[in-house]
Amino acid sequence: MSIPFSLPGTVCTHRIHPPTRGRQPWWRNGLIYDFRGFCNAAGVRAAIEHLPWVAKLGVDAVEIRPSFVRIDKDPCVKDFIAAAHRAKLKVVVRVSGNIHTHEPVAPDNPACALGYEAPDPVRHLAAALESGADGIDLGMLANDSSAPELFSWYSEYMQNARSEVGIYIPEDGLLAASATTNTQEGLQGLLTADYLDQVRDDGLIRVEFEAIDFLSTIVTTIREHNTSGSGLAWSTTPPSTERWKLGVFDDLAWYKPEHEKISERIRAVTSLVLALPGCVYLRSGEETAKPELITPGFAPEEGEHSTELIAATTAECARQAADSSSAYSTMVQATSLRAKYGLGESSWSWVEAEAYPRNQVLVGTSGSLITVFNTSNTTQYIPQSMKRVHVSSPSGVEAIPSIDPGTCAWFSPMKA
């Protein structure tokens, strides 16, 4: 396969994902903004205040987890959905909380858990759909074959959830879930489940900050989803502060809040993923590249802390919006370019070239754009026939196209 530019040395291009053809449901290649935390009514209302900043990101939908809300009794979720729809955003309601899967449900927390103890999670999700939700996320599902009785319970639950989504949203309704890559057998079981439209995993959360590791995970994920027919979905940072503190993710993972370059890493990884085909979940806080808003010192698994986190993220977005080189402004640019170039539905290939060390530099093509993800310690250069259209961490005007260490940039061919 040819590529729309030339690199010094031998070039070999591997196309592993074809472009999407024909009409697709909104979630197939969309952007979903995922509010962190287990929200109570105050948190849901804080999320309403944050919607204008989300809308500026150009996302297609928002996801919220009203774990401490009786949706059939409290109108706050219905109000949130109405506000999102006015902002041209669809709404996905997450009905489970993986932190509490095997723990008893507190009396004031009627729907946080998903497990044997949950009072009626199907009624909870049906209430969300009745309130106008455009999709349901079942959250982290057990995919451990060592617990067949739990897996059987999940299977029945998925079937019931699928039925409810079909009743309320007969066309383009989303039923999503997430899974861990710890057990490939279980992951494959979810990918091939008849009831789920989309399964996202934690593969890109666990990798080291090495281009070759990101490439391997991306290629594996695309091939697995293409084989199963499950919609591609990407996420890059830990979904839960508690899971991070408990050491659920590998010690060598790229995301380390204490790393001196963590903000630049967050921006680079986000830019890389926004150039990939499929659906991207942007978790709240990522648009600011602030680790204290992604994995805060407190636990947003508690309702009041979730409210505090959403309010802090709103304030940080307002501050960063005035700076054209900030993480927020850079993400707004990237999401706009993703829509302009149709990257969500484009083909995707990775490129081998002698000019770049494969272990440290990932070169990919998304449609007519070239993505360069540089995890090396040296600046990488691109032929002057290329125009840089986006960089994860702007560093001023440059004489020739280049990619600084620890950053990601997008390029397009110069017009003749």
Describe the structure.
It comes from Winkia neuii BV029A5. InterPro entries: GH (IPR017853). There is one protein chain. The chain is α/β, with parallel strands linked by helices. It has 2 domains: 11-17 and 347-413, Immunoglobulin-like (Sandwich), CATH 2.60.40; 31-341, Glycosidases (TIM Barrel). It is built from 12 helices and 16 strands. The strands form 3 sheets. The chain has an 8-stranded parallel β-sheet with strand order 7-6-5-4-3-2-9-8. A 6-stranded antiparallel β-sheet has the order 1-10-11-12-16-14. The chain is globular and about 65 Å long. The model is unreliable at 97-117 (pLDDT under 50).
What is shown here, in short?
The chain has helices spanning 41-56, 76-86, 121-130, 148-168, 184-191, 203-206, 211-228, 241-245, 262-274, 291-294, 303-320, 327-341, and strands at 11-17, 31-34, 61-64, 90-94, 135-140, 174-179, 198-201, 233-234, 279-283, 348-353, 361-366, 369-374, 380-381, 386-391, 402-403, 407-413.
- How confident is the prediction overall: mean pLDDT? 87
Total count of helical runs of at least 4 residues: 12
Radius of gyration, whole Å:
21 Å
Sheet with most strands: strand arrangement? 7-6-5-4-3-2-9-8
Query: Helicity level, as a percent range?
Result: 25-40%
Structural class: alpha/beta
The CATH class name of the largest domain reads: Alpha Beta
| H/E topology pattern | EEHEHEHEHEHEHHEHHEHHHEEEEEEE
Briefly note the CATH topology name of the largest domain.
TIM Barrel
The biggest beta sheet is recorded as: 8 strands, parallel
Number of strands: 16
What would CATH call the architecture of the largest domain?
Alpha-Beta Barrel
Low-pLDDT parts are: 97-117
Name the overall outline: globular
Number of domains: 2
